[in-house]
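Collaborator request log, item 7. Partner lab (contact: R.S.) asked for a structural prediction of Proline--tRNA ligase to inform their binding assays.
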Amino acid sequence: MSKNINKEFGLTVKKNENFSEWYSQVIEKAGLADYISAKGFIIVRPYGYAIWELIKEYLDKKFKETGHVNGFLPCLIPEGLLNKEEKHFRGFNPEVFWVTSSGDTPLAERLALRPTSEALLYSIFPKWISSYRDLPLRINFWNTALRAEIKSTKPFIRNSEFLWQEGHTAHIDNEGAKEQVIKILSIYKQFIENVLLIPTISGFKSNKEKFVGADYTTTLEGMMPDGKALQLGTSHNLGRNFSQPFEIKFLNSNNKEEFVWQTSWGISWRLIGALIMVHGDDKGLILPPVVAPIQIIIIPIYKDQNQELVKKHANSLKNQLSDLGYRVFVDERDEFTAGWKYNEWEMKGVPIRINIGQRDIEKNTIEIVRRDNRQKKLIPLNTVSAEIKETFKMLESDLYKNALRFLQDMTHLVENINDFKLLLDKGRGGFLVTNWCGNEDCEERIKEDTGADIRVLPFDIHDLPIKIGNGAAFLTLRQCVYCRQESNQIAVFARAY
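Returned to partner:
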């Protein structure tokens, strides 16, 4: 990216012409994050962090409503703990940062900067769990994780250090674990689709792509404008794969000792990256109202002689809207023109702009402008509460409909490997829905040949964003897209971040 990017306020590239550069410019010019010299690390600026805080606030409330409590975990893990579940650790080993000394003194045991927390947390669970009365145990953490992403980094999407949420539970039986997995995935799906307004495809990961150490992984996958998939949230059934090596046992109601059944689940600030990509346009960000740090920006328009009066009315309106629970800001800066302010707040994605000037005061009106489609509406001041509520509702509906329409356009039924390759190489990418034999060898060969992997094995084909009718007849033929052997699974492939 050019070091002189801030010399021009607006975006210098269009989203559909240079998506990667567009994304980088939005992050910097909207004031979300900045880069440091260490590859893969970013500084999140207050505006970007405020979005994360709103995501955290919403989900944290949902978790607590379902019986989860928050804790804190250190970021260093002794190597010996990681080796207790060798298969799990092997999956993360290439990404681990190691601490090998304290000052100039070598450590007796290497310490890993936490890539994930299962080994660290589960080494303590035996101290917390002794009886069935201690179960279910439901605990959640808001923290950072560190993974050595140094080859292909992208802010908020793929970083060496990132903010995330990870939950962990322990249960008496597998039924309790299964229910937990689906409950959390449902919370994620409701949030991502109804609040972030990003439609998803839900289902299982393949055995090859599941979380290392899990019996199975459930996932929510989104489609980005460049035709690549993005994993938005996962929920894992860990079975007894960790409770046995870490000896997490309990006495059941018959006073017999058993191993617990476990789950883990998480989302990260990757959701911010998805928001930028899915909803942004050539003017910058477009933020859904619930996660917008500023939901309404008020621009007073005045000349010197009426400056005081207009600002007074603008702040009175701000107080009125703030009392209704909205996050409102009045831009009173005299050194910038109204037009310059319009562009700045459009860049930051504020959902609604209100313009108010001397003429509006005299007529007892205000002008409301939607960020997504820039539609303007002149309304009586005494109807502002109802109009704002309705405008937010329409904006949310339109953002989701537009994103869903795009997802539908980017989801294709594919019958054979030639069409599969053609769509990826000469088309726009997207989700490719097809038959798969269930053989991991075919899965790996498709990945090698096309760069696409299985993103999700859908819970229900009828929930996919495609029309299942005559055009999907081949899906009933049960013939693998690659080897043409008998197929027992519908799979959704894509190239991905």
